[in-house]
Amino acid sequence: MQSAVRFYPPAYDIRVEEIPIPKIEHPDDAIVKVKLSGLCGSDLHIYRGTEVSKEPSVCGHEFIGEVVALGANFHPGATGRPHLYATLKVGDKVVSPFTVSCGECHYCRIGFTCRCVESRLFGTPNTPGGQAQYVRVPRAGGTLYNLQGLSAASVRFDKDAEETIGKLADSSLLLLCDILPTGVFAAFQALNNPKTLPMLTSRSYPQSSGAALLDVSVPFKAEDKVLTIAIVGLGPVGVCACIALLDMLYARDVEFRIVAIDPTEIRRKKVEAIYAKVSEAYGKQRDGHLEVSDIEASKEVVARWTQGIGCNIVLEVVGNTSALSLSYELVRPFGCITSVGVHAERQVPYTGRQLYNKNVSLDFGRCPVRAMFPMALDLLLRRQDIFGDVGGETSLVEKIVGFDVAAQTYDDFDKGRCGKVLFDPWI
């Protein structure tokens, strides 16, 4: 038997129970002994009952651990399939994205791995999650990342990167399961939207998107080149989106203004401290500014910065209609809203006419972790001052706890009394 954190419907009922250790059910399966698992903001949708679950389930979709059993399809002679089927061994340390992906279907081949035809979300009744001592990983050859293969996944593959990866703490590696790739995904999507490119290229639309046309536009004024961005929600994913966005903007040498919005003061202070650290190396050489704000004040900030025009980009990292309404209010005509917050079944709070009248691009959806993994790993390696420690002023991970305080930890996280918390199932 093993210990596991289980949710019982309809809401707010977390129990730690003894359940059977999972076994191989399919030749593509792996059984992983969990070293650490994470508590994520997405877990709260089930916890609060906004995402309806009718059956009890083992919680959690973020976990790292050690392979203790493999199905028959894992062997050195496996060919024509994801390479892990030939290379993964019992005893290997692995990182798991938060969804199952086969690595072989159309969506996996083109990089949209979160929409794999075999996609399943860990922490649901049909796919027990990682807040347990052991977890079964379906389609493991297309889902898991082997720690020994992380060097090759890094964008900046070199010997220094390889050595650094070998020294990464488990608490740092766990961020690659969901929240860091999702933050990178939000920033990447927004900065590569055609409506953002005029400010990044100093070329008018559609030439900014590569159209080979004679440019007869009026030259840009200085204010036309400034990128104004709002981030709505400063939970762990929102913090990752902030860091990713700053990293990308500093690398492009773009003048920018970011307003980072959250009603919770402790979250705003965390982002202020992180911004001070991230901008320290660039402050004198780059033109950029980040300001934290509560909800009402953010409207005044954006109006002051843009003379009432609004933001080029809004990143919505909450997952509710209030955040979407604020995003629409802050975005300018021909702006884009990128939403990576997990939404329930409530309707989007504006009409097609409202979107049409502003020419707003509305980009929704789940992060394809497998595709974003290399970019997220690269950022993780370069920002170990934030992602490498636990419990510091600028640390993303606040603490590591045992299952014995799981129910209280869920309540604290739900009430905003704590930030990112990890579970060690063996303490």
Structure description:
- With 427 residues, this protein is α/β, with parallel strands linked by helices.
- Helix content is 33%, strand content 21%.
- The chain has helices spanning 43-48, 84-87, 106-110, 140-143, 150-153, 159-167, 170-173, 179-191, 197-201, 236-252, 265-279, 295-306, 321-330, 352-358, 369-382, 384-387, 406-414; strands spanning 2-7, 14-19, 30-39, 57-58, 63-70, 93-96, 134-137, 145-146, 227-232, 256-261, 288-293, 311-316, 331-339, 361-364, 397-401, 420-423.
- The strands form three sheets. Strands 3, 5, 6, 7, 8, 15 and 16 form a seven-stranded mixed β-sheet that branches. It has a six-stranded parallel β-sheet with strand order 11-10-9-12-13-14, with helices on both faces. Strands 2-1-4 form a three-stranded antiparallel β-sheet, covered by helices on one side.
- Helix 13 (321-330) links the parallel strand 12 and strand 13 (331-339).
- Helix 8 (179-191) crosses helix 10 and helix 8 crosses helix 15.
- The two termini are 16 Å apart.
- The mean pLDDT is 92.
Note the main sheet. 7 strands, mixed
- Number of strand elements: 16
Mean of the pLDDT scores? Answer: 92
Report the sheet-strand fraction. Answer: 15-25%
| Count of DSSP H/I helices | 17
Cα Rg: 22 Å
Span from first to last CA?
16 Å
Low-confidence stretches: none
Shape: globular
Helical percent range? 25-40%
Structural class computed from helices and strand pairing: alpha/beta
